[in-house]
Amino acid sequence: MSKAGPIVGGIAAIVISALVFLVPFAFIILTAFKDRAQAAALDFTWPASFNLWTNLVEVVTTRNWMLVTAFINSTILTVSSVTLLVVFAAMVGFILARRKSRWNPLVEFLILAGLMIPPAVVPTIWLMQGLGLFGKLHGLVLIEVAYNLPFSIILYRAFIATIPRELDEAAIIDGARPLDVFFRVILPLLWPVTVTNIVVQSVGIFNDFTNPLYYLPGNQNATVQLTLYNFQSQFNTSYNLLFTNILLITIPPLIVFLFFNRQIVAGMTAGAVKG
């Protein structure tokens, strides 16, 4: 019985995970295949006719190919934000792990505060308007970097703490400058946690709904999540097109997680034990 307990628990966990994640995804796929009348019932039934291609064409071409523009905007937003996050978070994590000073507790407190305190939307909008960044894609890039930087710093700091200081000292003895030590010695060793950070932040920023809604108005600035408004309104919703749109914008993050699942787990646990 003692040996059977973990097996039963594992099977139960798999079944519950399948119900939580696979059933909703199956419902999205089935609804995307239906026509408008059958999809309006919002039931878990087999499609009477397969209309996926028709739905895909209508979703992509709606409002002058808005979904294509949204994918381009989301890609630019994601790549730019994640690039800045990796560079800035790695540099801050390196300094916090290597240089102990009286300011470290204050910096660490601010980092934790950035994780715990919810963002203030109205003051942020007022600040962005004053800087001329409201409604600009590069303004939202700065917002995403600011909101996600604390988590990235914590990841990098924990990982850098496992790297021996002797590597830094050897590089300095060989004549390396501080920037050379970081970019040529430390940064290449951060690949496991960097992959984790890239995947986690990319999926989060790509799927972000609230920040583009608040800080990036205008159809020309639409991101993929905001295109869901194309097919729903107060009095009428085309559920077949809505779920087809959801299916399209779900596929890229799903592929990323499937291919990088092992790297995500390795990077998250790499700094758990200091060597």
UniProtKB/TrEMBL annotation:
PROSITE patterns: ABC_TM1 (PS50928)
Keyword entries, A-Z: Cell inner membrane, Cell membrane, Membrane, Transmembrane, Transmembrane helix, Transport
Topology in the lipid bilayer: Multi-pass membrane protein
GO CC aspect terms: plasma membrane
Chief place of localization: membrane
Database matches in SUPFAM superfamilies: MetI-like (SSF161098)
Transmembrane spans: 7-33, 65-97, 109-128, 140-160, 181-206, 239-260
UniProt-listed CDD domains: TM_PBP2 (cd06261)
InterPro entries for this protein: MetI-like, MetI-like_sf
Domain ABC transmembrane type-1: 71-260
Subunit structure: The complex is composed of two ATP-binding proteins (UgpC), two transmembrane proteins (UgpA and UgpE) and a solute-binding protein (UgpB).
UniProt name for this protein: sn-glycerol-3-phosphate transport system permease protein UgpE
